[in-house]
Amino acid sequence: MPPPSDIVKVAIEWPGAFPRLMEIDQKKPLSSIIKEVCDGWSISTHENYALQHADGSGFYITEKNRNEIKNGAILRLTSSPAQNAQQLHERIQSSSMDAKLEALKDLAKFSRDVTFAQEFINLDGISLLTQMVESGTERYQKLQKIMKPCFGDMLSFTLTAFVELMDHGIVSWDTFSVAFIKKIASYVNKSAMDVSILQRSLAILESMVLNSHDLYLKVAQEITIGQLIPHLQGTDKEIQTYTIAVINALFLKAPDDKRQEMANILAQKQLRSIILTHVIRAHGPINNEMAHQLYVWQVLTFNLLEDRMMTKMDPQDQAQRDIIFELRRIAFDVEPEQNNIGGSIEKRKSMYTRDYKKLGFTNNVNPALDFTHTPPGMLALDNMLYFAKHHQDAYIRIVLENSSREDKHECPFGRSSIELTKMLCEILKVGELPSETCNDFHPMFFTHDRSFEEFFCICIQLLNKTWKEMRATSEDFNKVMQVVKEQIMRALTNKPSSLDQFKCRLQNLSYTEILKIRQSERMNQEDFQSRPILELKDKIQPEIIELIKQQRLNRLVEGTCFRKLNSRRRQDKFWYCRLSPNHKVLHYGDLEESPQGEVPHDSLQDKLPVADIKAIVTGKDCPHMKEKGALKQNKEVLELAFSIMYDSNCQLNFIAPDKHEYCIWTDGLNALLGKDMISDLTRNDMDTLLSMELKLRLLDLENIQIPDAPPPIPKEPSNYDFVYDCN
Fold it and tell me: 83-309 falls under which CATH superfamily?
């Protein structure tokens, strides 16, 4: 007979004694269990003791997390969180350097546990650490030269403990003094500083900026871009990542009127070029966190265009009208003075109207009206002027080529530029907040100071080329724009490293090539509509659904590593979840780092019986998506969020690493509950597998014997003289 589900068999350690094997009744109060353990070792003051995990996280066991204890777990009897916090609070104030260093080392380790952190914070421990950073370390400054390693380690452990304690979200960031901020900033501003101290100082500054507007203002006064750039020019990848994170945080939190000013400073300091040289093109791969920070920098940079994108043109503004005059002058080599030489006003108006028609404006009489729609607003006009000035030959060629064609075959430059600018803003999501999970940066946008404008210049030439290849007329305008968007998206898929490489890929994606790709995809997705085929599909479909279901469940058995999101990504915790082979239990637990390969069931502390699952919710219905935060409510995170609801008010919250894993897990969980799998991935898999199975069954195999076994592998050749070695 199996043991009751409330009984857990564990081993409990106590220093200097043999471990005890005992059964824990989860229905009993935790204090009673601790008293029973203490009585077994004749320890009288059980109130001063607690249980903690002896392996893995080493966290304290509380009434909230006691259900995480599993059979075979090894626990340790140790001093209670309150007593441990009190002892460490006293030890870190020791006059002995060695004792102080050892105490801070222990504090940095224990602070990861929220139970201990709460007790230490209740003793005003955060204030003590900040005082030590502000002034306490100064008493050892004189000893730094002879005890430099010890001093560096002590400060490093102090900052580590501070970061871990603040990461629990118990204390508000608004409570810190200017002196503390100045001290942390000084560690960042020093040219030669211990790497661990620099890492933690940068992490603290980033959290301050992201979590408090008042602290942002204070940090912005203490840290300049010029002081941060040398850290990017080093070789330490972690320091580079933290540095870009701080720059992104300052950029993100800057008021609208200051953001462009900051962008100008970044341009003066050649930040883009430094990132390109020392990060993107440096030796070694770019890790996920660095990719995320580069993506955030890219998004924030493009978001500077939002103001122009949402600004309508004022037809009465002479400065704005002069831009249109300049476009006309460059295209037709018309000098401004000619406007006033001879002829009536009507004649000049007629000449302007003719030229504006050649430029492809919709409103030939007053082209300013073309730029009154947002988006793209004035951004389209800015792009047109940039193209005319910096790619003058290409601009003139496009305008003159189209002005010499029949009216219905001309590609209207003005209208095309406006629609193309709007399309590029949609592709690059100009104006949207950066996603908390996205790593999708494009190296080519780091190769030019005016990357968006250059991107436009390449794409407007592509549009004109595609228009000619399609032999389009004015009625085909929307069709041409759809083809151009497909060309751009396909070229961006492979992340070209430079704008020139992007241009080359577009050259290979001509209209003819797009038609071939579409035809190939259409054939792969070919859907036969005759009645016998439809009947065959209906017969096959249940088999395919069962095949997809088994694949989803097998993937859940393999498991997936998820990340717990918080305000500081670099210190995020990982956790793993997988389904048991018998499909009856979900095993999950925290990890110290992202795993390589599968994580065994017995190393995952928690479990959830599938029978206890009540429902699966997704997107904005998830409990963890109902919390409001600056970066949590964006579209990308909502699309990756799902939760398992169980018991009365309990839930297990997920944010999938990507859309594919999201579909795998939601499909698999729905399959476990006997519900339909409705993800996009299931639909695609169904179409692909159904099409393949239909084609196999419809093959003409009459009088063809299909072997039961694969053909034998042929013998190796007697020599390899036919092989040509390219090296």
Answer: Leucine-rich Repeat Variant (1.25.10.10)
